[in-house]
Write a structure and sequence with these properties.
By secondary structure, the chain is α/β, with parallel strands linked by helices. The chain has 8 helices and 12 strands. Helix 2 packs parallel to helix 3 and helix 6 crosses helix 8. It binds calcium ion. The site of calcium ion (CA) has 5 residues, from loops.
Length: about 220
């Protein structure tokens, strides 16, 4: 699956490229509107991440250009603008979906997967580890069959941990993936949410699924 990232801010484009490559996607980049539109129309792109504010031609103009010849190519707009009117304008122009900056990478991935058609098996919408399962589409989480209610952030945090079972994830990686790359690094938000998550996932007689790795971060136990 080849993703075109149309983004003029190098830090954000780098962040997206690294994350997407780690997830197994191929990445193309464009740093302005005209180049983005040209590459989107080139024919070998499966999904476009399109920044709304771009030099040369803004995101909505680029989107209109893409839609004129590619009515079904998935295009997810990235925007700092929270106004409902902008969102409506984007969807009117044919954006497939919208993510507001600063966005969490997990949320973006979930939306991308929802819109990417093709060879990815339908089963990919569920993540599981041991007796815990998480459905990325229905957003249902279960442990040993019992439904667990999580907030949006708790859900994204658990999804991120489940994606890398047995691997140690640093607080910085977790923070970037779940809260966004520019979230204030001075906070202990990761530790606080790990605590929430542990409390909700606890089941008598069952092992704690999330391990603390001293001075590094956290790890989801692989297997049972
Ligand atoms: Ca921009």
């Amino acid at each position: 699956m080849r993703i075109l990232v149309v983004e003029d801010e190098p830090a954000i484009a780098d962040f997206l490229e690294r994350g997407l490559i780690a997830e197994g996607y191929e990445v193309r980049r464009a740093a302005d509107g005209p180049d983005g539109e040209r590459q989107a129309l080139s024919g070998d792109v499966d999904l476009v991440l399109l920044d709304a504010m771009l030099p040369g031609r803004d995101g909505l103009e680029v989107l209109a250009g893409i839609r004129a010849t590619k009515p079904v190519l998935p295009v997810i707009m990235l925007t700092a603008r929270r106004a409902v009117s902008d969102r409506v304008a984007g969807l009117d122009e044919g954006a497939t979906d919208y993510v507001t900056k600063p966005f969490a990478f997990e949320e973006l991935l979930a939306r991308m997967r929802a819109h990417l058609r093709g060879p990815e098996p339908a089963g990919k919408t569920t993540l599981s580890g041991g007796d815990i399962s998480l459905d990325l589409v229905s957003r249902e989480v279960r442990r040993d069959g019992n439904q667990i209610r999580l907030t949006g952030r708790e859900f994204e945090l658990l999804a991120h941990l489940l994606r890398y079972p047995g691997q140690v994830l640093s607080r910085e990686d977790i923070r970037a993936a779940v809260w966004g790359f520019d979230f204030d690094p001075g906070t202990n938000v990761v530790d606080v949410y790990i605590r929430y998550l542990r409390r909700k996932l606890a089941l008598p007689g069952r092992p704690a699924p999330i391990e603390t790795v001293r001075s590094v971060g956290y790890r989801f136990r692989a297997g049972r």
